[in-house]
Every structure is written in C-alpha cells, then in structure tokens.
Automatic annotation (TrEMBL):
NCBIfam families: hlyIII. Belongs to the ADIPOR family. Keywords: Membrane, Transmembrane, Transmembrane helix. One of its GO terms (molecular function) is pore-forming activity. It is a multi-pass membrane protein. It comes from the Eukaryota. PANTHER family: ADIPOR/PROGESTIN RECEPTOR-RELATED, MONOCYTE TO MACROPHAGE DIFFERENTIATION FACTOR 2. It is found in: Endomembrane system. This is Monocyte to macrophage differentiation-associated 2b. GO terms for cellular component: endomembrane system; membrane. The chain crosses the membrane at residues 31-49, 56-78, 98-114, 126-142, 148-166, 203-220. It comes from Pygocentrus nattereri.
Length: 235
C-alpha cells in the first residue's frame, strides 16, 4: 500500500502544514483517547495526597496533563472541520503551543516540590513556571515566525530542569524519568516530519502519550504511594 497518498507535500517554511483527512482524524484520536484517563489520573493523585503540598502538586500536574490533551484535541478538531472562524482556529493553535510549556512545568512540579533537593536546586520550583510564562509570551508575540527557535525553547525547558533532578538524594524513579524523556525526544523527530512521514504528527502524539504515561507512573509510584512518599523541604 502506498502510504504517500495519506499525506500532503511538505509545507514551505513560512506556512503551516495541511494534513489530509486521514491525518486530521489520527491527530484528533491520538490525543482525545487520553483526555478521560488524564483527568482520572490527576484526581487519583489528589485523593492520594496526605498534605497540602501534595495536593498542590497533584492539582498542578493533573491540570497540566489534562489540559495538554484537551486543548490539543480541540485545536485539531477545529482545524479538521475547517472552521470559517479563522481567528478561533488561530487562537486554539496558539493555546496548543502555549500549553506545552505549562505541561512541562507541571510535569516537573511534583518532583521539585515533594523531593528533597540541593540548596540551589530548590529555586527551580518557581523557575520552571517563570520559563513557562516566558514561553507563553514568546508564542503570543512570535507565533509561527521562528519555528526552529520555538523547538529549541521546548527542548531547553524540557532538559534544563532535568539537571536539577539529578541532585535528588533519593533517585528512585530516575530511570522512568529518563525513559519518558527519551520518548519525547524521539517523538520530536516526527514533530518536524510533516510531509515527510505519513501521520507524522499523530505519531508524535503517541510518543507524547507514552512519555506522559511513563512519567505519570513514576509520580504515582514514587511520590504518592505510601511506601514511597517523600518529605518536601518546602513544608
């Protein structure tokens, strides 16, 4: 079967790739499937919380995780239906890019809040949210203008806080963090492969779902199950 017929030609550098009908359906389905599990997962962590800091971490992480899948699905659905309200589509596209920054910050929050860190590393608890705010401002002012710069920003925010995680006295869960991070990194190859690999964006979505699933498992197992609960230095 010739898979090329399922994708369009690669878009010029200054234009957005236009998926085929098949790709639109795949883009929607591959993140819509995880909306309910992400909401349930966030609620589960909240009810497993034993104190105020665990509740805050669970709320922020659950909100970031579910928002990623909800906004992504909404944007791809609006785009697929070819809405005549171009301003609405543009708004959701910007939100789709913005939420990635907050998702990254939310994913780090449980580790930076509930694990004991070195004295300088503890500042990363709020630095990640400053970075997310900066990324949001960048999208607002320079959306789709410098795609390579945007990719570098996502990568930097995903990797830089990870250096702090290495300072944890208790490194249980580090293997899962690295594997999950590896899923994101591998997925980025497909994130930039629209028009080169059929269903590239949907494949990217699957790598995101795998990475998020592995990271969720690590947070649940090492930070929220009773035998592994850690004492936050922020308490």
């Amino acid at each position: 079967m010739n898979l090329v017929r399922f994708m369009n030609n690669r878009a010029p550098a200054n234009k957005r790739y236009q998926p085929t009908e098949y790709e639109h359906a795949a883009n929607c389905a591959t993140h819509a499937l995880w909306i309910i599990p992400s909401i349930v997962g966030g609620v589960l962590l909240y009810f497993l919380s034993d104190d105020h800091w665990e509740e805050i971490a669970a709320y922020l992480y659950g909100a970031g995780l579910s928002s990623l899948f909800i906004i992504s699905t909404a944007f791809h659905t609006i785009t697929w239906k070819k809405s005549h309200l171009r301003s609405v589509e543009q708004c959701f596209h910007m939100c789709d890019r913005m939420v990635i920054y907050f998702f990254i910050a939310a994913s780090y929050t449980p580790w930076l809040t509930l694990r004991e860190l070195g004295p300088w590393a503890s500042h990363m608890r709020w630095v990640v949210w400053v970075m997310a705010s900066g990324g949001t401002a960048y999208v607002f002012f320079f959306h789709e203008r410098y795609k390579v710069v945007e990719l570098v920003c996502y990568t930097a925010m995903g990797v830089f806080p990870a250096m702090v995680i290495l300072s944890m006295a208790d490194r249980s869960g580090l293997c899962e963090l690295l594997v999950g991070g590896g899923c994101y990194v591998l997925g980025m190859v497909f994130f930039k492969s629209d028009g080169v690999v059929p269903f590239a964006h949907a494949i990217w979505h699957l790598f995101v779902a795998m990475g998020a699933g592995i990271h969720y498992y690590a947070i649940w197992k090492y930070l929220y199950t009773p035998v592994n609960q850690q004492t936050s230095t922020a308490r």
